Amino acid sequence: MEQPNLEYIKEIAGGDPSFIDKLLEVVKNELPGEIELYKKNFNDSAFAKAAENVHKLKHKLGILGLSQGYELAIEYEDELKNGKYTLKNKFESLLDSCIRFINDL
Amino acid sequence: MNCIIIDDEAAARAIMTHLCGQVENLDVIEEFPNALSAMKFLRKNDIDLIFLDLHMPDFSGFDFIETLRNPPKIVLTTSDRNFAIEAFEYECIVDYLLKPITLPRFLKSIEKVQKKELTPSIKKVEAPTSSPVSSPEKEMYVNIDRRLVKIEFEHIYLIEAKGDYVLIKTENKNYTVHSTLKKIVEKLPESIFLKVHRSYVINISKIIDIEDNSVLIEKNVIPISRSNRPELMRRLNLL
Fold this sequence. Notes:
The structure holds two protein chains of two kinds. Chain A is mainly α. Helix content of chain A is about 80%, strand content about 0%. The radius of gyration of chain A is 14 Å and the shape is elongated. The two termini of chain A are about 20 Å apart. Chain B is of the alpha/beta class. Chain B contains eight helices and 15 strands. The longest helix of chain B has 13 residues, at about 105-115. Chain B is elongated. The interface of A and B includes residues 11, 29, 30, 52 and 55 of A. Chain A: One of its GO terms (molecular function) is protein kinase activity.
């Protein structure tokens, strides 16, 4: 399974370590709340709102180097817009791996 | 060249600010987490370029553009691949960046911005839909039971379409008039009235509050259609 990494962040940082630290700090602060909101909306069966949350989370997956995860999020977002969620477990596993990754940094 | 960044996601703003820092003579003047705060800023500040997120909770990027009279150059930023065609219907939109944005793609976008000589008029946003009209009339006369009844504009709360009739609600009385909303609108001063829904025209000065997709006037909750909301927001004197 694809794992979160710092490739994208390092690429845009262009050797600026302070930017890497700053961006990771922002992601650490922002990601848990976004995940919580997605789960709340999903649990409330507010699938259209959950789809919007996945849309935002998709960018975080991209920032953490998850290109396959990004594609998965696109499919899952489309599913949710239609009230379906067969990709829920896969997507949430990705989110778990992202949280573990940023917490271990 | 100066620019602002509008994005509800802090990580996206941080990335964009960093990328802008890689370009000589491109200054990020301000960042905004929502479109409303940017609208207030733009009333008092001239900006050359806006990096604009398409998906925001209160206002979409397109809604925001519709509120601008003389939009500067705009680069859309989004995680959605499906809006490229719609984006280029706006002359002010120079480019469309898919997140996560890479440095080479960003620099290419800046090149496009520098090359683009934007014509000052944008059909979609410059249509004189609401320029104050110097209408000398302060009232109109409507035919009710073979009498011509004077109704002063400033006393009207709202006008509602009801089939072949319109209901004119005023401070003193309600009038049912055999007419269409379209005909009535032609008589109303644009500086005071705004059509906020296919069935409703409101007196803007009578608004008590606005919540999501509705407006409260006296005791009436009036729906605001999505397409009319940007114009309404533009007409308000937002703090």
